[in-house]
Amino acid sequence: MTAFVLVSGPFTGGWVWEETADRLRAAGAEPYPATLTGMGDRRDEAGPGTDLETHIEDLVRLIDGIGAPEVVLVGHGYALHPVFGAADRRPERVARIVALDTGLPEDGRPAVGSVPDPEVRELLAYGTGGGDHDGGGDGDGGHGPVPPPTRGTWRRWGSTEGIPADAWERLERLAAPQPPATLTQPLRLTGAAGALPVAGVLCTDNGSSIAMVEMLVESGPPQFRELADARVRFFELATGHWPMLSAPAELAEVLIDAAAGEGHRVGAAGHGHGPERVHEQPSHLLPFLMDLPEVPRERRGRIDLHFPDGAHHLLADADHLLADADHLLADADHLPDSADHLPDGADHLPDGAGHLTDGAGHLPATEGRAGAGHPRPAVVFVHGGPVSPDQRPTPRDTPFFLGYGRYAASQGVIGVTLDHRLHGVADYPIAAEDLAEAVELVRADPRVDGDRIALWFFSTGGLLAADWLAAPPPWLRCVAASYPALAPLPGWDTVEPRFRPVAAVGTADGPPVVLTRAGLEHPAFSATVREFLDAAGGRGADVEVVDVPHGRHGFELVDPTEESRAAVARAMAAVLDRLRD
Predict the structure, then answer these.
(1) pLDDT grade for 314, boundaries at 50, 70 and 90
(2) For residue 481, what is the enclosing H or E element?
(3) Which residues lie closer than 8 Å to 180 by C-beta, 6 or more apart?
(4) Which of 239, 310, 344, 470 fits 247 for a cystine, CB–CB 3.0-4.6 Å?
């Protein structure tokens, strides 16, 4: 007989599993809905010392008391952290781990890193520069309990699709504050459970799917590569993030199948994504498809500026000219009758010293050339996400964005890369603020022609283009997007309505758009591109499409072919043409 230890996500307790447990029991299994210390009807047991280790110990004691020979641990949301911690301490007792619509945790990382609600991450000072979450701290940082969501904010934690009215009433009435140290204390694993089988249950109405996992394994960050391991299987449920409330019968069936070792293996035959398509090196660390020399690079806050040779000296040269001008004027003041003896007064200071700015804070452009003393147009490259705040290297230090920055510089413009805080699906407003601040910093640099800026968005960073298409400033000469999401992906209910480029394109006298499409794109992305092109065509927007028929998402890294190189060159040329118009 199989025993299922059912552990729910934050703010809840064992009560959320009642209907699923009934169905498991009817199928001959032993369900054990767990209520962790400080949660559910144990909320009064929470204290300053209640942390992740407390919850791991709760589960270890529960496992030790189960007589069934086979124990399956099921973790939903935050609960996957104590589940993995308990499995690490009792690997001989655990037959399998089920991750319910939740990414796998990492050793040394706290659960707050995967919290989708940006307000909670800010409250706990994670990913904002205000907290220590690099694995060194184990306390609650002086924070009080995290209050449970309200009816309007539950969706920040995942899609609430399918939850019936009576379950909503229980969820709101029984939700308990989450002890903060359960989220901020890093998970400590010895690796003892590293060989245990894992089943992932993906809730498609929350944006998860097997196809999405396949894409992430193939072209996403390194943490997803382990999902192609032979010990991992996947299931899909057509419901929201809370299937124990919205689809308890279907969930029970999936859990029974998972315990039997069934499920889909990512990387197996089908959908053109076989094991041979997965690179040995994480895709985001693969080399850029063009071999480009290093160029001068300057780091300023969240941005890096990549300069054509000589252009980065412009600011220093201007400072020296100003200093020379000051010295000449000072010397002139000490000369008797200086005004009479200096021909034409100060008009004959060293060339340019008296006219270093054009009144708008920019050094004057030399008409018709792009010399070292000429402010250059800039292309700002905008990454997608969500990207963990712990990811190293950060996007701007990856070969991908170093490559694009250098490529722009090799073409005579300033390439700008940045790290913005798109750490969760609900973080688009924060990322938009970071981008706006970065653009202003770029435009204020005297080496940049602030009237000639292009923004180039990649992947899910494409949603950030909406603001610029809806209200384009006159200095924005072009918007480019490569294999973008141009509307929120399925299940991304927490994305604010404003981040819909499909609704913004053509709504104003907007900039031209250069759109690069991957022919082997993920269906969820390509659907948004089709919708965007339909909207752009109906509104008369200026869109140039660059196709890569045999390219996949992130083709610059995963498909370094002549076709891919030609597409990048064509897209860059199109952007530069618009910058120079």
Answers:
(1) low
(2) strand 476-482
(3) 124, 140, 141, 143, 144, 145, 146
(4) 239
Confidence class of residue 535 from pLDDT cuts 50, 70 and 90? very high
pTM for the model: 0.72
Window from 17-26, 97-106, 328-337, 540-549 with minimum mean pLDDT: 328-337
Compute CA distances 109 → 23, 390, 427, whole Å.
35, 9, 20
String of DSSP letters for 102-138: -PPP-TT--GGGG---HHHHHHTT-SSSSS--SS---
Mean pLDDT to the nearest integer, 495-510? 90
Average pLDDT over residues 412-422: 97
In this predicted structure, what is the pLDDT of residue 490? 78
d(CA 365, CA 377): 11
Q: Side chain identity at 426, as an amino acid letter? A: A
Q: Which residues of 370-404 are buried (b: 16+ CB within 10 A; e: fewer)?
A: beebbbbbbbbbbbbbbbbbbbeebbbebbbbbbb
The larger pLDDT score, comparing residue 372 to residue 517, is at: 517
Could you give the CA distance from residue 464 to residue 237 in angstroms, rounded to a whole number?
30
**How is residue 83 written in tokens?**
């589940």
CB contact burial 500-537 (16+ within 10 A = b; e otherwise) = bbbbbbbeeebbbbbbbbbebbbebbbbbbebbbebbe
Tell me what the pLDDT averaged over the chain comes to: 85
Distance, CA of 157 to CA of 164 (rounded, Å): 17
Q: Which of 70, 77, 75 is nearest to 86 (CA)?
A: 75
What single-letter amino acid sits at 321?
Answer: L
Torsion, Cα 459 463 465 466, to 10 degrees, reads: 160
The candidate with the shortest Cα–Cα distance to 297, out of 288, 289, 309, is: 309
Cα(522)–Cα(416) distance, integer angstroms: 28
